[in-house]
Every structure is written in structure tokens, then in C-alpha cells.
Amino acid sequence: MALVSLRNLHKTYQRGPEKVDVLHGIDLDIEPGDFVALMGPSGSGKSTLLNLIGGLDTPTSGEIEVGGQRIDRMSAGQLSQWRSQHVGFVFQFYNLMPTLTAQKNVELPLLLTHLGAAQRKRNAEIALTLVGLGERLKHKPNELSGGQQQRVAIARAIVSDPTLLICDEPTGDLDRQSAEEILRLLQTLNREHGKTIVMVTHDPKAAEYASHTLHLDKGTLVEQAQRAA
């Protein structure tokens, strides 16, 4: 059974008097354990599709089922709760709180749970160790490199043990060496820890780390490619 299933998905935005059709009838299945790279020219609808899969936006019409749940039918409050339990997000610019340590940044999603302070601290330490920053728990973002800040962001994304990781240009602000380290980390999370990952990227080299590549053009899926294991 697919983890993510999209059926006849449409998204239209109203910009003043004009309607802008961003996605047109998307049909897509993403299996558990997939690592999907989503590519396409600027304005093709990549980030819109990613936001719909992650429950950050709602479709104009069509169905979105994730883990057996129809998230297109959820209210804003239900979506917020669902995201906190099932999805981890990694963005291009890290979105870390500058006044908090790495550990405290990673703990943030756990403040929405029933966990006590000691368990939140422990879980954050485990997540930071998993991404190779076990020695940087007390460092603030300005004391870390860009690649290290993105590792903190990934630790924050996985600390709640979500089923699905949503990554929007996760290497777009990094030099090549740091980018490759982040991509190898995502690949490890996929292959060794079973995380299903959907990643928007403009970089063909980044897409090579994924198991599948999907191409969007003008709001339509135009090509799918699967890489050999």
C-alpha cells in the first residue's frame, strides 16, 4: 500500500482578479521507504506539491491520502496535529532559533507532546548524535557552519520519529562538500532508518541520491525515473 497517494490533484491560487492554476490533475503514489527527488523549472509547482503532501497547504480539488488518512479532508487544527505526529520538515534556510542551543532547537517539536523535560532532552541528544553532532549540543546556530546548522534542522525534523520527511531545497544554501554530506545523511536516514523522503531540488547531482526522480512542468508530472539500487 502506498504511503502517499494523490488522485486528480488540482491547486489554484487567486491573485487579485486572476486565477492561477499551479497543479493540474496530479496522480502519484509514493511507497513506504521511497526517496523521491522532485525536479522541474521555476514555477512548475514543485514546492506547492511538496506543501500539499506535507499538509502545509490544501488542494483546490482532488484527494491526498498519507498513511491511510485523507488529509485533504482535515481542518486546519487537525492538519497541525497530524503534521506534528507524522511529518518532519527540512527547509533551505534551516529556520533555527538563533538564541537557542542545538539541543533546545531540536527539542522544539517535542514541546507539543506529553514528554517531560528529561525525555525531551534525551531524545534531542539521540537525534543530534544520529546526525553527527553529539559533541555540539550546547552550540548556538552562529557557532555552527551552514552544513552543521542543516544537520541540526534534520535532527529537529526526525526527533519525533515521523514517517515522512519533506525537504525543500535542503542543500540550496550549502557549498558542494556540505551539500554532499547532507545528502549522504538523508540517504542513510532513508536506507538504514526507513524514512520516506520527498525532496524538491534543482540540482541533478542532489537528485542522484534519491531512488526515484519525478519531473514537473507547468503543473503536470511529465517524467518519472527510477535509479538502480
Tell me about this structure:
- One of its GO terms (cellular component) is plasma membrane.
- This is Putative ABC transport system ATP-binding protein.
- InterPro entries: AAA+_ATPase (IPR003593), ABC_transporter-like_ATP-bd (IPR003439), ABC_transporter-like_CS (IPR017871), ABC_transpr_LolD-like (IPR015854), MacB-like_ATP-bd (IPR017911), P-loop_NTPase (IPR027417).
- Belongs to the ABC transporter superfamily. Macrolide exporter (TC 3.A.1.122) family.
- Pfam families: ABC_tran.
- The protein has about 230 residues and is an alpha/beta fold.
- It has one domain (about 5-225): Rossmann fold (3-Layer(aba) Sandwich).
- It contains 7 helices and 10 strands.
- It has a 6-stranded mixed β-sheet with strand order 6-7-8-3-9-10.
- A hairpin with a 2-residue loop joins β4 (about 60-65) and β5.
- α5 runs parallel beside α6 (about 175-195).
- The longest helix is centred in the last third of the chain and has 18 residues, at about 175-195.
- It is globular.
- It starts with a strand and ends with a strand.
